[in-house]
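Support request from a user on the community tier.

User writes: "When I paste my structure tokens into the form, the page sometimes reloads and wipes my input. The last time it worked, I copied everything first. Here is what I submitted, just in case something in the input itself triggers the reload:"
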């Protein structure tokens, strides 16, 4: 076929222009998004994650949390996320502009976590949930992340980070010992608590 090179060129440029248009259109629409104040003179949002939360994001990824949890709250007319209490408003593009890795997720085996820091602000709740989800959420199919804890001998006074497992639990610490979150466990909880949708955005307001 003497025109084969023309066909190849046509296919190549069709794919190249389609891909370029997809990338460029997104860049044109989103490139100018910046943090904004939810009220005049107030704090700029979204907030930049810092310290332990940044390290906790790495733990979140390494433990596979993003395979079962999403971080995107759909608008009221496109699902029941807000009715379920997963967020006070839908997530928008601006919420992700300061994130180097956006973990939208692809599956919801468990609840959406975009606002889990707002729904559950207690370190203890998160530690117990990670140690054994059945303690805080009976019937949950989430696995235990006990590898993020270590059993230590108690000192003169209990560790401030020690978690109190119900004495009837099979893994309750024996006398003289306590379960304490590891550094990775503490970092993961810091990350989870940093996930909040407690501010207004020009694109979406709280309590839609």
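"...and here is what came back when it finally went through:"
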């Amino acid at each position: 076929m003497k025109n084969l090179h023309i066909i190849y060129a046509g296919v190549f440029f069709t794919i190249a222009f389609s891909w370029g248009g997809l990338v460029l259109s997104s860049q044109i629409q989103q490139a100018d998004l910046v943090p904004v104040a939810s009220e005049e003179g107030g704090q700029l949002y979204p907030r930049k994650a810092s310290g332990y939360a940044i390290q906790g994001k790495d733990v979140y990824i390494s433990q596979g949390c993003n395979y079962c949890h999403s971080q995107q709250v759909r608008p009221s007319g496109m699902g029941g996320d807000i009715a379920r209490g997963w967020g006070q408003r839908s997530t928008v593009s601006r919420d992700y502009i300061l994130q180097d890795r956006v973990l939208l997720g692809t599956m919801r085996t468990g609840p959406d976590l975009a606002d889990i820091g707002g729904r559950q602000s207690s370190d203890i709740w998160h530690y117990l949930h990670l140690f054994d989800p059945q303690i805080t959420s009976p019937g949950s199919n989430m696995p235990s992340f006990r590898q993020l804890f270590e059993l230590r001998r108690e000192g003169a006074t209990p560790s401030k980070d020690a978690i109190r497992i119900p004495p009837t639990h099979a893994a309750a610490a024996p006398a003289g010992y306590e379960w304490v979150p590891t550094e990775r466990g503490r970092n993961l909880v810091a990350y989870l608590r940093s996930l909040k949708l407690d501010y207004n955005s020009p694109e979406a307001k709280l309590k839609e």
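Agent notes: The reload is a front-end session timeout and is unrelated to the input. Residues 173 and 179 are 6 Å apart (CA to CA). DSSP finds seven helices and four strands in the chain. Escalated to web team.
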